[in-house]
Amino acid sequence: MPSRAWSGIFSPRLTEALDGLQDPRDPEAIDYALRTILWTPILMFLCRLGSRRQIGHRLNTARVAAYLSRIARQELARVPHGDTVADVLVHLSVEALAQVRTDLVRQLIQKRRLENFRLLDRDYLFTLDGTGHVVYGHEPSPFTEGCLTAKLSSGETLYYRPVLEAKLVTRTGLALSVETEFLQNPPRREGQSPEDYKQDCELKGAYRLLPRLKEAFPELSVCLLLDGLYAGEPFFALAETLRWNFLVVLAEGSLPTVQREFEALIALQPRNRKLHTTKKAHQVIRWVNGIAYGKRALHVLECVDTPKDGSKPTRWLWVTNIPITPENALSLANEGGRQRWRTENEGFNVQKNGGYAM
Question: Where are the domains of the chain?
Fold first, then answer.
C-alpha cells in the first residue's frame, strides 16, 4: 500500500478533485461513489499491477477495502470490480480527467513544493517530447482510423498512434505529466491527392499543446527544454509570444549559420569559458551571445564532458534566449539543458517499464 506520508499529502486533494467530476451514471443505480471508482485504478497503478484484471485478483481483500474506504470516504465491503471501473471510465470526459492531473501539479507549485528546483531561482522546467503509444500492425480496421502510417521496407503499412507529453521535470528526478496531445491524422478530403495530404506530427502537436499549457499556467515563469526538432523560427516566435524561455538542443546540421558563427566566434572570446569538475567528469563550458538569426539574436551554450575513467568525451550544444554569463553558464548547462533526458528516463521509461504498464 502507498505510504501514509503520500496519502496525507495527496489523497485529500485528489479525492476532492475526483468528487467534483460529473458522474454520467443514473444516481438511483449507484453502489460506488465516483471517487471510489476512480481511486480503484489509481491504486492498481500505484501497486504496479499492470491490468484491471488484477484488481479482482490482488486488490479485493479486506485490508485494501478498508484502505480504499478511508481515502475515498465511503464504507466498503469490497473493492469495485475492474469491469465496473471500465464501464464508468468509458463514459467520463477525458478532458475533465486530464484537468485533475494538471490541477494537482498546480497545487504543488502553489504550495511551493517545487520552489527549490527552479532554474536560476526563476524558471520551472518543462519538457516536451513524443513517444509511441499504440501500434496496430499492418491491416486497416476501424481501430486504425486516424492513425499515423509508415511504409516499411517490406512494402507493408504500419498503423500507429504516438502521443506528445509536456512534463514538469526537476534535477532530483521528478517528471510530472501536465499536458497531453494525441497525434492523429485528419480525415482525407474527397479528391485530395496523397501529395497534398499531410500527416500529423510532433511539431504540429506542439503548436496545439503549448498554448494550452500557457493557459493552464498563465503567470508561471517557464523554461522549455526541447530537442533539436524545435530549433527553428516558428518555435522561437511562439516562445516569444508565450513569453517563455527555452534551451533547445542544437543538433548537427541544425541552424547551420548559427553553428558556423558560434565556431568562428568562440575562439575569439576566451573569457566565455568555465571549467567544472563533477564526481565522474571534467567539464568545459563555453558560450557565445547575440548570434544573429533572422530578426532575432540567439545565444549558444556548449558543454563538453570528459569522463575521469578515460572514456570518450561527450559534447552538448544548446541554443537559448537566455543571455549567458559566467555566473549562470554552469546552471544553464547542468541544471537546465541536461535535464531534458528526464522526460525519457523518469518519464516515459518509468511509465512503460516501471511496472505501471502504461
Answer: 4-92, 248-341
